[in-house]
Amino acid sequence: MKGVFGVIIFFLLSSQMLLFVPPSAAQQILPGIELECSISSITIDFGEDSDLETELIDCILTNDRPYVEDVALEYISEDIEATGPGSLTVEGGDDVSFQVIIDLDSGLSPQTYTLNITAEVVSAVGIPMGFLTDIEEWVVEIEIMEYTNCDVTYSMNSLSVEAGENALFTASYSCESNADKELDVEVHLVKKNENYESAWESGFNVISEKCSVVISEGDGFENCEFELTTPSNIDEKFEGCLIVLDERKLTAGSCQNEISLEFIVEPGESRLINGVGGNISVLDDYNISEMQVVVAGGVFVAFSVLFIIIVRYRRR
After folding, report:
1. CA torsion sign, 234 to 237 to 238 to 241?
2. In degrees rounded to 5, what are phi and psi of residue 131?
3. How many Å apart are CA 196 and CA 22, to the nearest integer?
4. Closest among 32, 85, 34 to 57, alpha carbons compared
5. Which of 119, 110, 137, 106 is nearest to 40 (CA)?
6. Tell me, what DSSP letter sits at residue 49?
7. Residue of 188, 185, 208, 187 lying closest to 199 (CA atoms)
8. Distance from CA of residue 165 to its chain's centroid?
9. What is the mean pLDDT of residues 156-160?
C-alpha cells in the first residue's frame, strides 16, 4: 500500500513539474538510465593464449535525472558465463562504473555467442518504479576461434645409430582442441645448425606405419612408433635431430626452435679404407664384403713376395 501511495505522490509531483519544463526536458523527469560498455565484440583465440581464463568489460551507468535511482543489472547468455554487480545506486546527475567478468571455457565450440547486459531502474527516490521504466541493453558478441594445441614427448633424449642401421624411437603426441578432428603425425629430419628442414639425404627413409591422433571431446593422445633407415655409405658422422609434428606443419624449423630429439649416425669402423689421396669408401659402393677385402689383400701380398723372389733369382 505504501508503494502505491509513493507512486501516486511521485506522479503528482512529476505532473506538476512537467507543467513548467519544455518537452525536451520532460523526458528527464521520468525515471530512466543510460548504459554503455567499452566493447561490443570480442574475439577469443585459445591457440594464441591457452591460459586465457577471463575477459573484462568496462561499463558505465549514467543518471541524468535530478534524483537518485536504484538500478538492477543482469547478464544473459545461453552458453557464456558472466558475472558482475546485481544492482547499483546512481545519484542524480551522476554516473557509476562497473566491470563485467566473462568466464572463458576453452571447450566452447568455435562460433559466435551473444551476451546481453541489461539495466533497469527499479526505484527512484526510494519509490518502486520497475514496472514504469524501459530496460536498457548492451549486446556483446563473443567469437570463439577454432584452435588446436599439440605437444610431443620423446621416449629418449638422444638417438645414435651406426650407418646402415635402422633408427627406432617412440613419441607421445597429445592435443587439445575445441573441434573434433584427426591429424596425421609425421617425423621430420633436420641437420644440425640448419634453420629449417631441407631435402633428406639419400638413404634416410621412413618405413614405419602411419600414425594418427584422434581428437574428440576436447583432447586426443597417441603413442607413435617411428622407424627410419639410414645410409650405409657415409664418410663422416651425421648430426641433426628428429622432429615429430602433425600434418598442419609441412616443414620443420631448426632443432633449437622445435621440440626435437638429437639424432646421430656414426660411420661404420670397417667401412673406411685408407688409400692414396685420402679415405675411400668402397665396401658399399662396390658391394664388396669384408672377407673379400681380406682375401684380396692376402693374394696381393703373396704375389708381391713371389715377384720379388723371381726378380732376385734372375739377377743371380
Report:
1. positive
2. -80, -5
3. 75
4. 85
5. 137
6. -
7. 188
8. 36
9. 96
- 41, three cell numbers: 565484440
Could you identify the residue written with the cell 612408433?
225
Question: Does the pLDDT value for residue 132 go beyond 80?
Answer: no
Residue-wise pLDDT for 75-119, tens only, equals 999 999 999 999 999 999 999 999 999 999 988 999 999 999 999
Measured distance CA(158)–CA(13) in Å, rounded = 87
Counting every residue, how long is the chain?
316
Cβ proximity of 79 and 113 under 8 Å? yes
Can you tell me which residue has the cell 507512486?
Answer: 7
Q: Which cell goes with 131?
A: 514496472
Q: What CA–CA distance (Å, rounded) separates 40 from 137?
A: 11
DSSP codes, 192-247: TT-SB--PPPTT-EE-SPPEEEEEBTTEEEEEEEEEEE--S--SS-EEEEEEEEET
Q: Is the pTM of this model over 0.70?
A: no
Phi-psi region of 277 (alpha: psi -120 to 50; beta: other; left: phi over 0): left
Structure confidence at residue 84 (pLDDT): 98
**pLDDT, tens only, 282-304:** 444 445 555 565 555 665 655 56
Would you say 164 and 223 are in contact if contact means Cβ atoms under 8 Å apart? Answer: no
Cβ 196 vs Cβ 173: under 8 Å: no
